[in-house]
Amino acid sequence: MPRTDDDSWDLATSVGATATLVAAARAIATKADHPVIRDPFAEPLVRAVGVDFFTRWAAGELAAADVDDDESTWKLAHMPAAMAARTCFFDTFFQDAARAGIRQAVILASGLDARAYRMEWPADMTVFEIDQPQVIEFKATTLAGLGAAPRAELCTVPIDLRQDWPKALLDAGLDRNRPTAWIAEGLFGYLPPAAQDRLLDNVTALSAHGSRLACEAVPDMSQVDHERAREMMRRVTAKWREHGFDFEFADLGYEGERADVASYLDNLGWRTVGKPMSRLLADNGLAAIPQSNDSVSVADTVYYSATLSK
Length: 310
Ligand SMILES: C[S@@+](CC[C@H](N)C(=O)[O-])C[C@H]1O[C@@H](n2cnc3c(N)ncnc32)[C@H](O)[C@@H]1O
Known about the structure:
The protein contains eleven helices and seven strands. It has a seven-stranded mixed β-sheet with strand order 3-2-1-4-5-7-6, with helices on both faces. Helices cover 39% and strands 13% of the residues. The radius of gyration is 18 Å and the shape is globular. It has 310 residues and is α/β, with parallel strands linked by helices. Bound molecules: S-adenosylmethionine (SAM). S-adenosylmethionine is lined by residues 15-16, 18-19, 22-23, 109-113, 131-132, 135, 160-162, 185-187, 190. One of its GO terms (molecular function) is methyltransferase activity. Exhibits S-adenosyl-L-methionine-dependent methyltransferase activity. Belongs to the UPF0677 family. Pfam families: LCM.
């Protein structure tokens, strides 16, 4: 189903299922011979969501090679390494921010991110998680059922990021006079271009001097053949349907020209540094993923970290 302005989801459907997909990739990465991440909550969370396709993949009962489409540059097989590299990038970002004395972290679009439960945080750290209500509720309840407890003060903010989330975040206790470390991991592609800009404006307005932001940016799409990209993503999920999971990736994202994240942030007063996925993989000793410049391969994604001067 195509997106609408007020659509909502749980972790088995629509955009919510992408959170389960990336958690399944973290579960597999966690079980690698020489793992670069350890997310012990990923597999139990995926299992609890109950999408058989992801549960079997995470458990090693379904091989990516049996599901991937030869002609698409998007491959399930690439996801564990890509998500391991991405997880390290955002983990390191939060660790550095905490070392620099920042004591408020905001995870925008938290999905099944278990950082509040698995990372070592300073004793006086507050972590805010924002996502749609059903997503927030599911993760909190499932982890509590598993006996897991947050390792920081955790404040959940169940709201759609197209609504007035800044007010909800302030009501939940964010102190806009103290610096904040923000992450937006796997989010921008699911927001319309104008909503991405508004989100960065709002983050900036809520950020004191010295705040930090790390985000994953949709690659430049100006040269992309959108119909071809959509077709490649349709081929991916056609195979998934054969394995029992009825899902359509091609409907979830927003096309249209997007502001360049680095320039947009720099104009708002942030000093921004970008790293391509290829660099994140190499930094972690992980094998390269072929780049294709078609907006479909995860290898084309760029990761930014930024610091604000006000
Ligand atoms: C690919 S998942 C990433 C989840 C998490 N950041 C991670 O990396 O594990 C995308 C997440 O974005 C959230 N999301 C997308 N659009 C949103 C919106 N408008 N409001 C709230 N959450 C949104 C989804 O619910 C989902 O949890």
